[in-house]
C-alpha cells in the first residue's frame, strides 16, 4: 500500500510537470497549426535561465523572470523567423524549428558548458511535504504539482472567460473576419507563440531543480512531449492533461517494477530454453522496457484512434 501511494503521488507530480510542458506545445498547435520541434529547447532555456537568475537574485524571482524571458524569445522567433517561413508551408516550419533546436543546444554549450549545472531547490522548499505510511513526499514535488494545476486553471480562464481568449479563438477559426473587425491577427499569433514558449520556460524553471539540468535535457524529454500530444489529441488541452498524467504514472510505476513475462509464466510451467531469443524477451523486465512504453502506447493509439483521446485533428 505504501508503494502504491507514494508511486502514485510521484507519478502525478511528474505527469503534471509534463502537462505544463506539453500545454504550451498544444496551445501553439491548436491556435497556429505549428508543430514546434524546438519546444523542448525552450524548456531547457527556461531551466538554464532559472538557474542563472537564481544565482543572482534568488529562486523566486527566477521562477517569474525566466518564463517571461523565454516568452520574449518565443515572440522574436515567431516574428522574425516562423512568420517568414509560414508562407512556404508546414514542412518549412518543421525544418525551421528543427534547426532552431540545434542552435539553442549549441548556444547552451557555449554559455554554460556541456556539464550539468547545480540548480537545486531553495531551502524553503527543501524538505518533506507530508509523511504517508512512513515515507515522506517531497515539498518541492508538491510545489511542482501546484504550479501545474494553477497554470491549467489560468489557461482555461484566459481562453474561455476573457476577451483576449475570445479574440484568440476567433483568430484561429476565422482569421480574415477577426482582422476585418480590427484585430491584429499576426500579433495575436506572435503572443500565442510567446505564451506557449513561456509555459515551456516555466516548466524548465520549476522542473530544473527536480531533475538534472544539462544540455541533454531537451533531447531526453522532447520526444515524450510529442508522445503526449499525439496520445491526448493534436490541439486538445484536456487530452494533453489526461495523456500527461497517464504517461507520468506509466513511467513512474514501470521504472520501479521488475516484473517480467518469464516470472508471470513460471507458475504455469511455461519457460523458454536458456540462451534463446525467446528467453531473452521473456526475461525482459518492466523496468528495462520502461523507456519504450510511452512510444508503444503512442503506436497503439495511432492504430486504434489516430486522432488521439480527445483530438479534433487527424495526426
Question: Percent helix among the residues?
Answer: over 70%
Q: Mean of residue pLDDT?
A: 85
Give the SSE order as H and E letters.
HHHHEEHHHHHHHHHH
Assembly context of the chains: single chain
Q: How many strand elements?
A: 2
Total helical segments: 14
- Low-pLDDT runs: none
Strand content: under 5%
Overall, the morphology is globular
The SS-based structural class is mainly alpha
Strand order of the largest sheet: 1-2
Major beta sheet, specifics?
A: 2 strands, antiparallel
Any overview of this molecule?
The protein is about 70% helix and about 5% strand. It starts with a helix and ends in an 11-residue tail after the last helix. The chain is built from 14 helices and 2 strands. Strands 1-2 form a two-stranded antiparallel ribbon.
List keywords for this structure.
single chain; about 325 residues; mainly alpha; two-stranded antiparallel ribbon; 2 strands; about 70% helix; globular
In short, what is this structure?
With 315 residues, the chain is mostly helical.
Helix-strand layout with pairing:
Layout: H1 2-32, H2 39-57, H3 59-85, H4 90-112, E1 128-132, E2 135-138, H5 139-161, H6 163-173, H7 175-180, H8 185-207, H9 217-232, H10 237-254, H11 261-265, H12 277-282, H13 286-289, H14 293-304
Antiparallel strand pairs: 1-2
Helix pairs in contact: 1-5, 1-8, 1-9, 1-10, 2-3, 2-4, 2-8, 2-9, 3-8, 5-6, 5-8, 9-10, 9-14
